[in-house]
Design brief:
This protein is of the alpha+beta class. It has helices spanning 2-28, 56-59, 110-114, 156-159; strands spanning 30-34, 49-53, 67-71, 77-84, 90-93, 96-99, 102-104, 126-127, 142-146, 162-163, 167-176, 182-183. The protein has a single domain (31-183), classed as Umud Fragment, subunit A (Ribbon), CATH 2.10.109.10. The strands form two sheets. Strands 1, 2, 3, 4, 9, 10, 11 and 12 form an eight-stranded antiparallel β-sheet that branches. Strands 7-6-5-8 form a four-stranded antiparallel β-sheet, with no helix packed on it. Keywords: Hydrolase, Membrane, Protease, Transmembrane, Transmembrane helix. InterPro entries: LexA/Signal_pep-like_sf, Pept_S26A_signal_pept_1, Pept_S26A_signal_pept_1_CS, Pept_S26A_signal_pept_1_Lys-AS, Peptidase_S26.
Length: 186
């Protein structure tokens, strides 16, 4: 009888430890997220399932072209790409990204740009001063984010700059569906 009680106690103890470890991992390190909508096409597809690294920005700052998840509202998280960093001026003119008035290649858009017709617009022209907030340069602890599907994305062009406090983490691993398993990013 004592052996049976001991076995049950060991099983319950192991289960509680597993639940505690899962809670800590999900709370502080990694969470799953499902892409909702076409704003990151062609890089991410609607319903792609990804892992978000919540820890990485505690030890380093976001880098240009990182794909981040952030709180757009109390009820909605968005997935977008970091384009502009603190202290920078960002503009797009004739489908070319300019950071501090210098053209910057966007390798994740190369295929789209190659297949465009000469009159086609991938990204409407804009400059930082004309976005919500009217900044001349991106303030400290903020980033400018854009969706890869520039003609169909709610991003910094309409919602303004994103504060570091809004960022949940970085995502780069698609784990579902099986035929889309890959590391994405720069």
């Amino acid at each position: 009888m004592k052996k049976q009680k001991s076995d049950w106690f060991d099983w319950i103890k192991a289960l509680l430890i597993a639940v505690a470890v899962a809670f800590v991992i999900r709370t502080f390190f990694f969470i799953p997220i499902i892409v909702d909508g076409p704003s990151m096409l062609p890089t991410l597809h609607d319903r792609d399932q990804m892992i978000v690294n919540k820890f990485v920005y505690r030890i380093k700052k976001p880098e240009r072209f990182d794909i981040v998840v952030f709180h757009a509202s109390d009820k909605k998280d968005f997935i977008k790409r970091v384009i502009g960093l603190p202290g920078e001026h960002v503009a797009v003119k004739d489908n070319i990204l300019y950071i501090d008035h210098e053209p910057v290649e966007e390798p994740f858009l190369s295929e789209l740009k190659e297949n465009m017709k000469p009159y086609q617009i991938l990204t409407e022209d804009f400059q930082l001063e004309n976005l919500p907030g009217g900044y001349a340069a991106i303030p400290e602890n903020h980033v400018l984010v854009l969706g890869d599907n520039r003609s169909n994305s709610v991003d910094s062009r309409s919602i303004g700059l994103i504060s570091m406090d809004q960022i949940v983490g970085k995502t780069s691993l698609i784990y579902w569906p099986m035929d889309r398993i890959q590391i994405v990013g720069k």
